[in-house]
Amino acid sequence: MFDPYHKWLGIPPGQRPPAHYQLLGISPDEQDLEVIAEAAIRQTAHLRTYQSGQYAAECQQLLEEVAQARLVLSDPAKRKAYDATLSSSKKMPAAAVVELEIPPSAESEAFARPRTVRRKRRRAIPWTVYAGIIFIPTIAIGIIAAIMMSSKPARTTQEELAENRAPEASRPLTQPAVPTRNTGKGAADSSAAEKGSDSPRDMRPPAFPFKTPPPSSDLPTPTPPAPEPSDSDKMDLPEPAHDPSLAPERQKQMREWAKALIYGEDDRRIKVCREIALAGPEAKSLGRTLCRIATDKSAKVRQAAVEAMEKVRPDLGKHLAVLIARDTIRVHDTLGAIFQMGEQASDLIPVFVFDFTLAKAPKGNEKYIADIAGPLARIGGGEEEIVRLLISGYKSQNGVVRSAVAAALGIVAREHENMRKLVVPALKPALSDPPACAAAATSAKECGYEARELLPALRKVKLARDEAIRKAATEAIDAIERAPEPTVAQRLEPTTLDPEKAAASKLKKAKELLEGEKVEDAREYCEEILKKYPQTKAADEAKEMLAKLPSK
Question: Under CATH, domain 4-88 is a member of which superfamily?
Fold first, then answer.
């Protein structure tokens, strides 16, 4: 019978249920709250590597027990009650304490009698010293100012008269001219160059490059309608996910809403969020856009986006509310639920990217990366930008964070084979890092044949003193050596990261096969498009092509 306590945490079989101290791997005498928190983070990151495997239910139970152990041991009152329970059940024998009453003696009383300490009186500083400290810098500043004034040439009376007689048109303008609004290509770039980066929108985190045109002038003029984004801006505009169930007019409405959410003012955004909430699940293609503006600086915009998300995607709306509110009590359960949902929770990627970027900031909570690395890898591991963001977290100075990132890369390699070309080079330095070595070896096992370049490093790791590291390296070497070499067809398989482009590439291949009268091969490609990329535009064409093909 599989025992997760023994296999994963190394707790002997005879000690069931294990104590909170055993779950966290700390001593019962440990009182430092930071050490307890570090131990909980370390155990959580280690257990999440098994969360998507055969024993997912057991892993989730252990994660909850670790969270409960951290909660109890971090609270002095709860910990005292828990220790009393352990002592009564004889799981943690209490140390015998013997109190000896020693009668006071004359010597002890003599030593206990307070002594009078004579302090040496400090010599008073003469007032002349204070006067020198004050007046000498003042005199020096006055001399420097006099020298600078004497070096500036005095203006003559003739020059002053000439300036006074100068016509109004020749005098320099003290009030800046009102700039004209550029509505053509590069409007945002040109206006940003004129105004600088003082606009509140320009101060948003770099993970979400909102392009909002600055105001046309500082003068109190009526606010004109927002200009149409230029061609360069339209490339960055997030298109809603293609939903074939919607009519063309309704899809156009979704695109208009997305444009208003990204480029509109706060009042317009709040109004659009309410309209989207009324549309309900019909507007589910705007889920990622709503999560994107849920990280806005305006509290009203964030609240409106969360309320709309609860109507559009009820399964994700409650998780979004917890993440945005930074609810530390429910965040662990929320992250576990998001991990189980996998790519179905991909709309939450902007929120995770926002939190990940803030955690890496100089004054950010970098330890939070260890908590969100696994869920982020599970829901966004198929996107190259997300994988590179995870890899950047390995630059952390915290060993627990580096270990969590190495474990998250294993999730990416297991679920997205086309990402292994990015994962394998990132695991190479991790194999020589003691805190992340075991997690990196476990992740290398998931990379298959592509990880053959890691075999020399894994053989060195196999000689480590730590038994867990040696075991992980041995299993990785065996898995990599037994992995079959990919076929020519698999190597020629398009590894593009965009589902639309991947589906379009397969549809093009199906049309070429149909022109060559290879009907069955074209049918297989169309069925693969419908299976892997059902939400793409190419899936509609593939469905029509299948309907026209002769039956088998």
Answer: DnaJ domain (1.10.287.110)
Measured from the Cβ of residue 515, the count of other Cβ atoms closer than 10 Å reads: 9
The residues, any chain, with a CB within 8 Å of residue 122's CB and separated by 6 or more, are: none
Amino acid (one-letter) located at 230? S
Q: Which two tokens stand for residue 154?
A: 């005095």
Instruction: Kindly report whether the peptide bond that precedes residue 17 is cis, defined as omega within 30 degrees of 0.
Output: yes
222 burial level (CB within 10 Å; 0-12, 13-18, 19+)? exposed
User: Which 3 state secondary structure label does DSSP give 130?
Assistant: helix
Q: Decide: 347 and 291 in contact? Cβ < 8 Å.
A: yes
Strands (E), 415-487: none
Distance CA 113, CA 115 (A): 6
Please tell me the total number of residues recorded for the chain in this structure.
Answer: 552
* Cβ pair 45, 52 in contact under 8 A: no
Q: What CATH number should be reported for the domain whose range is 381-496?
A: 1.25.10.10
Q: Ramachandran region of residue 234, left (φ > 0), alpha (ψ -120 to 50) or beta?
A: alpha
The pTM is what? 0.50
Residue 237 Ramachandran class (φ > 0 left, ψ -120 to 50 alpha, else beta):
beta
CA 329/CA 333 separation, integer angstroms: 8
Residue pair 94/87 in contact (Cβ under 8 Å)? The answer is yes
**Longest Cα–Cα distance in the chain:** 113
- Here the tokens at position 540 are 């509609």
Q: Any idea where the domains of the chain sit in the sequence?
A: 4-88, 199-209+231-359, 381-496, 498-548
Q: Which has the closest alpha carbon to 346: 319, 308, 306?
A: 319
Burial class (CB in 10 A: 0-12, 13-18, 19+), 57: exposed
Query: What is the Cα–Cα distance from 15 to 391, expressed in whole angstroms?
Result: 39
In order along its 552 residues, the chain shows pLDDT tens digits of 788 888 888 888 888 888 888 888 888 888 888 888 888 888 888 888 887 778 888 888 888 888 888 888 888 888 888 888 888 775 543 333 333 344 444 444 444 444 544 555 556 666 677 777 787 888 888 888 888 776 555 444 444 434 443 443 333 333 333 333 333 334 334 333 334 333 333 333 333 333 333 333 333 333 334 344 443 333 344 455 556 667 788 888 888 898 888 888 999 999 999 999 998 888 888 888 999 989 988 889 999 999 999 999 999 888 998 888 877 788 888 899 999 988 888 899 999 998 888 887 777 777 888 888 999 999 988 888 899 999 988 888 888 889 999 999 999 999 888 888 899 999 999 998 889 999 999 999 999 888 899 999 999 988 888 888 999 999 999 999 998 887 655 555 544 446 777 788 888 888 888 877 788 888 888 888 888 888 788 888 888 888 888 876
CA distance 498 to 382: 9
Burial class from Cβ neighbours inside 10 Å (0-12, 13-18, 19+) for residue 165 reads exposed
DSSP H or E segment with residue 264: none
Joined together, the tokens standing for residue 63 give 């994660």
